[in-house]
Amino acid sequence: MRLIHTLLLLLALPSLGAAAGLVTNSEFKDASGWTLPANSGWRIADDDGRSDASALRYQGLTATAAAPVTRQVNVGQQADYVLTAWAKSDGKLRPTITIEGLGSASAAAVPANTWQPLTIRFNSGDRKQVELRLVADSEATVPVGTSTFDEVQIWLATELPANVRQAAQPGPGGKNIALGASYTLDPAPNYGLCTDPGDRVQLTDGTLSEGYFWTQQGTVGWTRGKPLIVKLDLGQRRPIRGASLNSAAGRAGVTWPAAILLYTSDDNQSWVRAGELINLSGKHGDAPAEGYAVHRYWTGDLATAGRYFAFVIASGGPYFFVDEVEVFEGPETLLTATPAEAPVLDLKSAFLSETISTALTHQVASDLRAVRAMLAEAKLPAAEQRRLAAELTAAEADRKVALTAAD
Fold it and tell me: What residues pair up with 50 in beta bridges, in sequence order?
């Protein structure tokens, strides 16, 4: 009853104000704050922005080594940030944003004249300032063509506004070694509104679907398939520290997955369990319990290695949809680490033995996290706060013992 009382108290807490990004003039109302190279093909356009008329455009009439548009942005040290932006091409160029020394993101040349979200997750380290570089094309010599940028912004990862989360959700950062990787799908996707030949490449193309999730061609979907297995070929044995999967649910009978098991392999035959993504992702926030939403399951807590990486998914109902998966590179020391679990030869058999016990733990874990977060914000007497925190710690310890026994 006291925990329920705590929850009720929290309903009266004031809501926080909206977070502000670090980049002023992010929508290119004019050139202020940005350095546009002279006589380079760059200009502020007033006829083709994403949310209003203004945008930054490059138009090249000859192939050239076009200089980038740059900007210095002040940041806090040792902080996690997310850069978000939108870009589009005329079908000839690949507009690219780089944070010097920290990461880059490129839009695809096709579909032409379509705004695409770009995301870079980074940690500032010891830097107090970062340099943004907006490049007309990913190649050093820029072909004839047009690139356009808009809404270039940097956010603290913990303050990413809800209206940009679909295009850029907090994540582990680092290099996505699954970008462009080939993969297999078992069974084949079969949801009519989004199944297309592009399903063979869309999960690792770096592009998220925009709009109603399961009606978009960039989404891959199944109906009545269990388990669903996505196997990626990373090209060579790689150290792995994290993974993510972007999905949606909450309407039209679509529910969140019950379990997402992660496996690695060196030979595509013998597989070692790396973790369970829903539980690992829960400490960063659970998928919404009600209403339509897009949610990115992610973790940076893996410690494994392999050439092949598998997502083995238990759908929570008759449908499952995903538009992007990622695998994040870890330190080289992981290449020599000893696997913590014995290998399995059949992912489907492993799925059947593990998924039931895994799914049953998620609701308890979610409830405990929600109550702890609310308790931390509640304005209760110190003694009551400590007593309730101790009860939660004991409940979490009991859950871990039960989970270990189930495994």
Answer: none
Which pTM was predicted? Answer: 0.55
pLDDT digits (tens, 9 = 90+) for 92-111: 998 999 998 887 777 767 56
Give the total number of structural domains in the chain: 3
Asked whether residue 301 is assigned to any structural domain, the reply reads yes
What tokens does 343 get? 């290998």
Residue (of 342, 348, 337) closest to 303 by Cα position: 337
Distance CA 202, CA 182 (A): 10
What's the pLDDT tens digit per position in 254-280?
A: 999 999 999 999 999 999 999 999 989
For the record, the structure tokens of 339 come out as 């696997």
Domain that holds residue 195: 182-353
CA dist 352 and 28 (Å) reads 53
Q: Find the helix or strand (DSSP H, E) in which 279 lies.
A: helix 277-281
Specify whether 390 is located in the same domain as 347. no
Is 14 domain-assigned?
Answer: no
- Same structural domain, 216 and 146: no
Longest dimension (CA), the chain: 72
